[in-house]
Amino acid sequence: MKKFLIIWLLIITLLSGCSTQASYSGVHEEPVSETVFAMDTVMQLTAYGAEAVVMDEAKKRILELEGLLSTTNTDSEVYGINQKKSGRVSPDTASLIQAGIKYGDITNGLLDVTVYPLVREWGFTTNNYRVPDKDSISRLLKNIDYKKIRFNKAEASVSLPDGMMMDFGSLAKGYAGDAVLKIFSDAGIKSAMVNLGGNVQTLGKKPDGSCWRVGIKNPEGENYIGTVLIDGRTVITSGGYERYFKDDNGKVYWHIFDPVTGYPAKAGLISVSVVTDTGIYGEALSTSLFIMGIKEASEFWRKHRDFEAVFISEKGSVYVTEGLRDNFSFSEDYSGHTLTVIEQ
Length: 344
Description:
By secondary structure, this protein is an alpha+beta fold. It contains 8 helices and 18 strands. The longest helix has 18 residues, at about 50-70.
């Protein structure tokens, strides 16, 4: 099934919330762009004033992470651990394991990196889609619990119970984006953007000192419903429309699973876009907030206040958290829509 990009990047001149003052030299530097296919998606890297060697290093880093973290590549580190149930891991895999445990705790288990056997049972890893029977789902749920991962930080080793498998698809692209931006920053680059299959991550502002503008896709169409202004931040979206299938009766089942029920999440939301400082946190939150639904997600935001979000309900209602009040705007086609601001 065709996988649509979740977010479109739109580079624009100044709008509200961003200064026109260029904060560094190099305003006239030209953008250097590279495209790489990895992690089952097309990735676009753009950096202003970058040398070719820096772009090569960024591409190499992405492919290195794909080689470590893939659940289907028989040569990957994660694949080997899933088969053997134990072993030593590289620093990157160790970081993802620790992040999975950390964000599992923060989201009360809604972000669970051991959900892979369930996703596979539904056919989302093979495209052989099916609705499993209740007994199969109940059996698989017994082995879905990130708290059962045993990780020894001192030895960089991990062990899993029989029947359990790890999958970092909910974190890997954000982690890769963070790694690429670090390479750019370490090279002295002040302005950059990476679009990893719709995950938009930015370094600094645009060279003229204005913000980046990121379009939020309309879940029911090919256009975008609105835009968010960001400055050195990340916008990551999870949407039910991204990957799904229909059964013989036309019922839709999408790829975002509730690890408690074993079924695709159905809490009234069809799209969640999260604005954060890091890609890996944005990935963890976008999935978890989607599963929560608007009421619980709003309370989660009020409790943590270290991110902002745009929510689109199945009925088409649009909500933004208070911090985006001045940095979100509807596109012209949706100018008549009502925007609900979630306040503290």
